[in-house]
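Notebook entry, structure prediction.
Reason for the run: the old model in the group folder had no record of what sequence produced it. Starting over properly, with the input documented here first.
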Amino acid sequence: MRYLYSAIALSLLAGTAARADVRVFDNEADFLATAPIVATVTFDALQDFQVRGTVEVNGIGFATRGVWQMPGFCSLDRPLGANNIARRHIVFNASNGDSGVTHAVGFLITTFAISPPADYGIVVTTADGAITQVPVDDVTNPNPAYRGFLSASPITSVAIQAVGGTQFNFCFDNVSRAVIV
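New structure, fully documented this time:
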């Protein structure tokens, strides 16, 4: 039943279901060895803060309807979290301040969920208008999930939200990206 909820939520999140050329990685080492990564944000050096709406770190914009918190409360590390389970959006900002794109982005999803595990849905949108839906199932506190995305068509945004009958909040850590143009 949980998988049915995940499928329905992903469909609602994405709207349409065109398949892009996006390669999906669930192993951080494999992603970092394959993708042309130029920067990784661990959030460890950031000062504590609370910011409503959107926060930008190293050219990556993180947006939510809630308040971003540093540190997030999803693990003992210093992840970036928000004060609710609302959908989060990742966008890219070029050095001149305009909206940007990248060919690769990856991140660790952490949560405080132990039992039952948490499920999330990710939607990757590319510049050619294609949408790739990626379910992320069975995430727990001792077992965070990594997802990396590599695409020949530039990635314009990534949306992630909790899905299913049991929804848990989540945080980001180890956010890696390729050059933003």
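Summary: The two ends are 41 Å apart (CA to CA).
The old model has been moved to the deprecated folder.
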